[in-house]
Design brief:
Distance between the termini: 18 Å
Order of helices and strands: EEEEHHHHHHHHEEHH
Radius of gyration: 23 Å
Strand content: 5-15%
Number of domains: 2
CATH superfamily of the largest domain: Rhomboid-like
CATH class of the largest domain: Mainly Alpha
Strand order of the largest sheet: 1-2
Length: 269
């Protein structure tokens, strides 16, 4: 299962566990010398003090055998906890059910273009709300396919920055557009702005990835241009889709993608 490198933050699908410190590292930082291993320093100190070369993991702690069912559940939870994309997906699904269980849940967390100064938390919380099952399904499919791909390339922490910053900027862009241009400030929900930021960032870092749009194969670069043009030409008052949020999310993702690519801190496989 993939884990985030303790040294550089890159999420490696096949991590290495250091036998001296016990932490997980990517291929480039798997050696103790590559990650400044503190466990190796302690090991050398023990060797120097005892005069013996040995390595014996602590076996004094009793081990408990778990049932196969519990083991499978624990593995599933570990995968979700080690993958921020899947964690966001699970939170969004739980939030969707809470919309139908808790009265006033959606109204308290949805984005109101006229109320973002008095309710700033909605710049984030609206991301986890969805209008209906189809809206949730398409957004989560988008996240499932493209989120982990970007997360593996830039690491979990920076993935969260791209996701939430794109969502916040998209919310601000939608609010300004709907109030001052369309003059139709309808409440908005959904993760589309954040997801388009992920898509745009991934396009900058891996422009040759092949994707399928309506069963037609094309490079991710052309797919992004297609979606952007679609949003540009269908923006209209009363439309249930926040196209301006999509476009603002794209711009945010492109800027962050350029910054990350310029830093060189990403996996280019």
């Amino acid at each position: 299962m993939s884990k985030e490198c303790e040294y550089c933050g890159f999420r490696d699908p096949m991590p290495f566990t250091c036998k001296f410190c016990g932490n997980s590292y990517c291929y480039n930082h798997r050696l103790p010398e590559s990650h400044g291993c503190t466990g190796l320093v302690l090991f050398k100190k023990k060797v120097h003090e005892s005069g013996k070369y040995y390595y014996a993991p602590d076996s004094s702690a009793p081990t408990r055998r778990r049932s196969p069912a519990f083991r499978s559940l624990n593995n599933a939870i570990s995968v979700i906890k080690s993958n921020y994309s899947l964690m966001i997906l699970v939170i969004a699904i739980i939030s969707f059910f809470l919309e139908y269980i808790i009265p006033g849940y959606s109204a308290a967390l949805e984005l109101d273009p006229l109320g973002i100064t008095s309710r700033p938390w909605t710049l984030v919380t609206h991301i986890f709300l969805h209008a209906n099952g189809i809206h949730l399904l398409f957004n989560m499919m988008f996240l499932f396919f493209f989120g982990p791909e970007l997360e593996r390339r830039i690491g979990g922490k920076r993935f969260l920055v791209v996701f939430f910053l794109s969502g916040i900027i998209a919310a601000i862009g939608y609010s300004l557009w709907s109030v001052f241009v369309l003059q139709y400030p309808a409440p908005a929900v959904g993760a589309s702005g954040a997801l388009f930021g992920i898509f745009a960032c991934l396009t900058i870092l891996a422009p040759d990835i092949q994707v399928y749009i309506y069963f037609i194969p094309m490079k991710i670069t052309y797919a992004l241009i297609f979606f952007a043009l679609l949003d540009i030409f269908v923006v209209s008052p009363g439309d249930a889709i926040a196209h301006s949020a999509h476009l603002t999310g794209v711009v945010a993702g492109l800027v962050m993608g350029r910054h990350i690519k310029g830093s060189g801190r990403y996996a280019g496989y």
